[in-house]
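$ ./design --mode recover --in tokens.txt
reading tokens...
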């Protein structure tokens, strides 16, 4: 072992020059700073509004939660998925700020920017974080002011930080979803959802476009 180290310590000048040359070539390719990662996908439209008659409402002081049953279609136009969306509104439900779409195939969530009439959509990584619903409920319980501030609702976030909100609502939301999720209707509700989608698209043609 000593002979091995000694031989490398006594490298020939031409070998050292060759190694220095290789270092000079490789050095510029080494990144000097982290590569920025996109912070969500800005969509220049508002997401599909909640269907009020398919939602249960939970008042919690400064905020109100809507838990909506959702039925989505597949490529064949049939029922492809039954899932839940959790909507976070101000107390009188005049503005929505955050939405968790706890879908099985494409789980994601939205920050809703009411002033700009835009939203920022984030995909949810189930492999890294596990099922979305427990994560969403924990995030609501522990980080709601941060979410609201991210959506531009600064005054509401500050009020929650001062006053808090009724966190027992989170347990009630979880029970409500567990109760109705297995019994969600199928084709009839899907057709109603597609009609709701078409109606919103007529009002806001930019919905679900790239601009």
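writing sequence...
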């Amino acid at each position: 072992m000593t002979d091995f180290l000694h031989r490398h310590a006594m490298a020939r000048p031409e070998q050292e020059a060759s190694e220095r040359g290789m270092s000079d070539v490789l050095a510029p390719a080494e990144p000097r700073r982290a590569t920025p990662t996109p912070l969500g996908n800005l969509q220049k439209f508002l997401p599909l509004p909640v269907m009020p008659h398919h939602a249960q409402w939970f008042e919690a002081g400064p905020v109100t939660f809507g838990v909506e049953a959702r039925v989505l279609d597949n490529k064949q136009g049939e029922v492809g998925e039954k899932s839940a969306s959790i909507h976070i509104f101000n107390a009188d439900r005049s503005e929505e700020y955050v939405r968790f779409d706890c879908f099985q195939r494409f789980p994601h969530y939205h920050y809703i920017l009411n002033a700009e009439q835009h939203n920022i959509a984030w995909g949810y990584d189930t492999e890294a974080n596990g099922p979305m619903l427990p994560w969403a409920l924990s995030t609501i319980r522990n980080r709601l002011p941060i979410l609201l501030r991210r959506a531009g609702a600064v005054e509401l976030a500050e009020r929650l930080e001062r006053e808090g909100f009724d966190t027992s609502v989170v347990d009630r939301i979880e029970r409500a979803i567990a109760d109705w999720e297995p019994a969600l209707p199928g084709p009839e509700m899907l057709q109603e959802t597609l009609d709701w989608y078409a109606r919103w698209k007529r009002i806001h043609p930019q919905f679900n476009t790239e601009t």
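exit 0
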